[in-house]
Amino acid sequence: MKKLLFFVVILLFCSPLFAAVDSLAITDPSEGFPSVIEPNILDTLAISFQVYDETGAYVTGLTMDDFTISFGSEACENVTLVEAANVYSLEVVPYEYDVEGLYDIVLTYDDGLKLSVSTTLMYGVLYTYSPLVENGLLWLKYYQNSDGSWNWNSQSHNLGITALSLQAFLGRGYDVDDPLHGTVVENAITFILANQWSGPFYTYASHLMYENCMAIVALTSALKTALPADLDSLITNALPVALAYITDPVVDTWDRVSWRYNSGYTSQDGGDMSVNQWAYLALEGMEYTDKDIWNKSYNYMDYHKGTDGTGAWIGYQNSWTRPRGNTMAAIWGL
Known about the structure:
Number of helices: 8
Number of domains: 2
């Protein structure tokens, strides 16, 4: 019997990232993106493939009796198969797993030759109760640059945006060992570490303090995950130097402290809440308490707040400029 080879083809009506809600489709395995399924909303999954023999000739006339299909370790039933224009199309309702996770899809020809529609665990079906979050992470993965960074508007390879994107993956529980997003996480960490310059992390000097603080927040989160010893050591050694860029300009005798675009702005009153919030989060991540830093931070907000007797707020650099967003920044940061 001739050896059969299976090739997945992208359905023309399907985006390379996200499948339609009512008819999910598997992408080309080289793309590395699974279909996302919510366990309690199991839609029909459509899988298109072609079958060739060893000579490269298309094999026609196969029926569902020739195949079995499984998700993870569970076989699927009630599968339909249609052949048209040299393409086979399977439609199947996935097996209902209660546990979130990534499950491989295996298509088996009945002669015992087993070939996977998705060749590794990186491709297949991702069962999740948070499909919006997982689709968002797949979108971020798609747009990550080859050096591990992400772009922001016209600014390519932006370290601040890279740190925020890394936080999104870490916050969802993905680490460097994850089969789906591990490479994304490790490459982002590597990019941040490669862009530490005489203290702070940054790629754009115009908002250096933002980027440095965001990097510290992301890297302190990364240290809470399982990391290779060499990467753990690099982060551990880099963080105190980056922290010093925030704390060294702070004078012990100050009553208040605030930060802005770079360390030259660090003063009692010359900063802004947009940057302050990230300084607070970075200091918290590093568990920094020297120089009475938290009382100084609180005193800055107390000194610059606005109040009407029923509540208080703070603005960008005073009490009246964009107070809603900056009040939220203050609450979040502290």
